[in-house]
Amino acid sequence: MATEPALETAAHAGAPGPLLEVAGLTLRHIVDDRLLVQDAFLTLDSGEVLGIVGESGSGKSPLLFAIIRLLSREVEQVSGRITYRGEDVLSKSRSEMEEIRGLEMAMIVPGGKFSLNPVESVGHQIVDVLRSHFPDMKKRELHAQAIDILKIMGLPDAEIRFHAYPHEMSGGMAQRILIAKAMACSPRLLLGDEFTVGLDVTIQAEIMDHVHALVRERNTSLIITSSDLGLVAAYCDTVAIIKGGTILEFAPVLSFFADPQHSYSRLLLSAAREARAQQHVVDTHIETPSEQLAAPPFVHESLPAPSPPYRPVGPGHWVREET
Amino acid sequence: MTGEPLLQIRNLTKTFIVGNKQKLVAVSSVNLDVHAGETVGLVGESGSGKTTLGRVVLRLAEPDSGEIRFDGINLLRLDGEPMRRQRAQMQIVYQDPMLGFNPRFRVRNIIAEPLQLHESLGRRELDRRVMEVLELTDLEERVLKERPGALRKAEQQQVAIARAIATRPRFIVLDEPTGLLDLSVSVRIIGILRRLQEEQNIAYIFISHDLSAVRAISHRLAIMYLGQIVETGPIEEVFARPTHPYSEALLSSVLLPDPHRSRERLRLRGEIPSPIDLPPGCPLAPRCPLVEERCSTGPPPLVAIQGSGEEGATPTWWSTCFPLADSSVDAWYGRLKAKRSGEDVLIAKAEAAVEGGVPAEAGPS
Predict the structure, then answer these.
(1) Chain A interface with B: residues with Cβ < 8 Å
(2) Dihedral of the CA atoms A256, A262, A264, A267 (nearest 10)?
(3) First vs last Cα of chain A: how many Å apart?
(4) What 3-state class would DSSP assign to B265?
(5) Which of A151, A292, B35, B118 qualifies as a cystine partner to B1, CB 3.0-4.6 A?
């Protein structure tokens, strides 16, 4: 059902090249005259799941918000380009962006029920998203489609819950609604800003499993920001480590966890491992090679980054030189 | 652990009356021992009653019934002045330290306040004691003159710990002390807490839903679900081979920084229900994938699990589960594992097919 009015002109259906490319992105906070993100780059293929990992204040959220152009007015883009399906996102007009958001790329926000409209039923909030992009859709269709997406997100009794208000839901259920809103129009690119923070581990696992299965099934790309390397190890194909607004390492997940290169990456990983020791491993089942092959490998042989500070250390594995 | 526990909690129950005279059982018949110098990690999902249990143990909330013995003294019999004096021995550290500080106080006064309330010290002695705890908690002297709001989150938490240990308590409830901190900082705070414990033999109840932090600091683990402790035992053993289906579901949901680890986990149906007007029986029964008919008949039995400890020694590992009561532990692990991997469905299908004389299907449908 995904039509693509905003990007239909792109002369590259099935063209090679990444789905998204960010190069040399520098963002500055106007009020405190501080660089939030410096010379950042990203590259992402269709169906790929990328995790941007950093501690609070590292610049991972501004980087994510810049891609979908939802930065606050206090943040100025100093330089850089963002290319989505071969087109320059930054040159899009406001109305073009409105078309792109929701249909092409969508944001999963954190915050559960506090991020939903408190006075509208959750089903109607999803219908609103659909209607704004498909004005010709019949009421019954909209309703059916919203219920479908609620079911896909694992909401029990979706027909009844359609009419529920956010305050009647648990944090985990409300978070599913937020994901359902983002996924309603089947965008090609999903951006999730620490959207499982504050959820209990069982709920987080449940929700991430749903999102991951859906992303794989629809060949959607996903970028998540997180400070949790466990989350990245479990669900991402590629990982970018960011600190002080600068990307320090960019690598396929398997290669990163096997051999992190940057001293800060090693610090993060050892902190995570120290905290987690060899938790719950007695009858851990190790993925067999065939299962590993089933996951599409995403190896980025080139980077949209100035080469000198970054050097390759393996297939698709890049690290910034330390000074 | 040998000898008398420092803290003995017996049959502790706390209910709240909410809304239209409905009973919310936040803590239900809890038994727990904490020895001197020991950390008991208390984990469970939001709403499981961990924080309420921590508060009731310190009598920051009054329980309905039960017993709390601290160093042999029944705390619930104490009132007024004796209880106040007892509080010097028992402290709490919250997730957000700012909630416990007077924002207008300087850090020196925040740390000195409990000392002034509990001990009559001269100015010089007071200063000495403040400096002492400052050092114990890795704080720099400069913070003494600051107001807490000017400090970083980690420093605020260090001040909260300094304040808590000022009166040289023997027991501290740590209620998600690392919940708001970044990983590298949280590792440091846990280091400080561990060192303090070794040096001063303090007992901790460490409440958290961050299982990795719990594992890094605890000696024993207690897992709570809907107000009840469903399993308790030596931390490494419970982490390695949890026996209660809820423990298994919780621990197998933890994501580890290892991309090779399987994501198989025991799935519970739905979400944690409201703790209001719970039906009798095991609290997990409505969600449990291994539920049997008897599970909803009454309170589940307490089953001792033989861990690595010596045969015949006093058991330290307990689980509360009906089907586990008359199953060998190994057979039980087999069932849990089959449930986790989904194998049990295939086996059941194959069996049904054999019985019905229909050839078994090749794979999961």
Answers:
(1) 55-56, 156, 170-173, 200-206, 209, 227-234, 253-254, 257, 267-269, 271-277, 279-287
(2) 60
(3) 50
(4) coil
(5) B35
Partner-chain contact A281 B240, CB within 8 Å: yes
Query: Residue A176 is inside which H or E element, if any?
Result: helix A171-183
3-state secondary structure of A297: coil
pTM of the model: 0.83
- Decide: helix, strand or coil at residue A225: strand
pLDDT in tens, chain A (323 residues): 444 444 444 444 444 679 999 999 999 999 889 999 999 999 999 999 999 999 888 999 999 999 999 998 899 999 999 999 999 999 999 999 999 999 999 999 888 888 999 999 999 999 999 999 999 999 999 999 999 999 888 887 888 889 999 988 888 889 999 999 999 999 999 999 999 887 888 888 888 998 999 899 999 999 999 988 999 999 999 999 999 999 999 999 999 999 999 999 998 888 887 655 444 333 333 343 344 444 556 888 777 766 678 888 988 899 998 87
Query: Are A26 and A47 contacting, i.e. CB atoms less than 8 angstroms apart?
Result: no
Going by the DSSP 8-state scheme, the letter that residue A286 receives in this structure is B
Taking CB atoms and an 8 Å limit, are B45 and A271 in contact across chains?
Answer: no
Query: Which chain B positions have a beta carbon within 8 Å of A280's beta carbon?
Result: 239-240, 242, 251-252, 254, 256
**Tokens encoding B35:** 């020895």
Mutate which of B51, B211, B235, B254 to disrupt the A interface (most A C-beta within 10 Å)? Answer: B254
Count, residues in chain B:
365
At A274, the amino acid letter reads: E
Q: Tell me which residue in B187, B250, B264 faces A202 most closely, judged by beta carbons.
A: B250
Neighbours of B314 (CB within 10 A): 9
Q: What's the Cα-to-Cα distance from B362 to each of B335, B343, B346, B359, rounded to whole Å?
A: 22, 13, 9, 9
Contact A205 B263 (CB under 8 A): yes
Q: What is the ipTM of this complex?
A: 0.76
